[in-house]
Every structure is written in structure tokens, then in C-alpha cells.
């Protein structure tokens, strides 16, 4: 810890790597283990050439504990295991270079809508904020239609607002300095009645909001598929093809829900 000086993390790691004459560093801070790859060569050797050994990931305590935020089932939080490979296999059916062409019309229509919106904001007092909001809504609209076949109505759309709340709460929950359970996982065992344990109630409220908001668009898509009115979408096609016959309905819904939310989080904020 004493070797960790203040400043941007990447500069601190770079300086420490030069001091130790190594491109690969292992650091343990208050129980958190960090592996730093300080060069493209080191990253390529470990993450590409030896990906079967080094593709696992650590899930933060606040996400891993089902009694807290409970987000360990998200594609981005899964370990390198059969469930993660299942997610990847289903996503690859639609996200490859050739496969994604079936959704080009959706992307073109959303691009046209964005350009029309941008042309009308030059007279506003704070044009930059409007530009940012229009880009956010455009990306969100594109992803909702690609994933669920649902077209957002406006910024107040309940599906949009619900997903934005999930992402905001998730970012707040995983910050080490916001909740010390990420540093000391044993704090999750502290009883709720102990003074100072109010943070657990806050995280559980966020968890319950996530559970409700993340399932709502999936249920909408399922209803459209049953009615025969579903627009082309990733989850809609998976439901129609019944690609998960070996899973229970509950497990299938859980995986599709997590896949949809992970795709939205990854693409709408990239």
C-alpha cells in the first residue's frame, strides 16, 4: 500500500512497473487482488494466447451476494464457466459481422431520428447537454429495439427510466468508497439492526428496483411473441426458436433477462 502514490491509477501502475522492471504486477489492497498488465504484449500473451486460463473475472461482493444487489448472473459478471459460454453462444447468433446486418434498418431509422433531433437544438441555451441527452436516448432506443423489438416513446418511457436507474444504482453500488462491503465482504453478515447498517436497506431497495425493471421489457416481448406481433429482435427470435429446451422456464427467463440488460448496459453506454 505504501508504494501506491496518489494520482491517476494508470500512471501509478506504470511507475511501479518501471520500478520493479515488470509488465505484470500483482497488488493486494485491503483484500482486493489486482493484476495489472502494463503493456500490449503482456495483455496479448495472457488474454489472447492463454485466454482459456485467464478469462475469468471477479464479481464484486455487493453484486455477488443475493441478499445485496444480486447481479452475479449478469453476462459481464459471470465467471468463465458454462453459463457464460451459454450467453456467448446465444449472443453470437446475432452479433457477428454478418448476423448483425439483419438489424441494419433499425440502426438506419434511429440514425435518421437522431440527425433530425440534432438539427433542432442549436437555439437552446445549453446545446451540449441536449446533444448528450439526444445521443443517450438514440443509443437506448436502438438497443431496446434490437434486443426487445420495443420502440421507446420518449425520455419518460418507463422502460428507459427503469434501465437508467439500474445502471446508476449499479455504478454507485460497486464503487469501493461508497460501500465498504466491496473491500471487506464480511460486512455483508452484519445484522440489519446494527447501527450504521442502513446501507444494506439502500442496496436492497436498488436490488428490488432492478428485479422489477429488468423483467418488464422481457415480459412485453414475450407477450408480443405469443400474439404473433413481435418485431425482429434478439430476444424475440430466441423465444420463437425455443433455443433453451433443456432449461426450466424460470432459468430461461433469468438468463434472457440478464442477457438483455447486459447488452443494453454495454452498448448504450459505449
TrEMBL record:
One family name in Pfam for this protein: p450
Protein name in the entry: O-methylsterigmatocystin oxidoreductase Short=OMST oxidoreductase
Family per similarity comment: Belongs to the cytochrome P450 family.
Co-factor(s): heme
Entries under InterPro entries matching the protein: Cyt_P450, Cyt_P450_sf, Cytochrome_P450_fung
MF terms (GO), sorted A to Z: heme binding; iron ion binding; monooxygenase activity; oxidoreductase activity, acting on paired donors, with incorporation or reduction of molecular oxygen
Record-linked SUPFAM superfamilies: Cytochrome P450
Record's keyword terms, sorted: Heme, Iron, Metal-binding, Monooxygenase, Oxidoreductase
Organism, scientific name: Thanatephorus cucumeris (strain AG1-IB / isolate 7/3/14) (Lettuce bottom rot fungus)
Keyword Metal-binding: yes
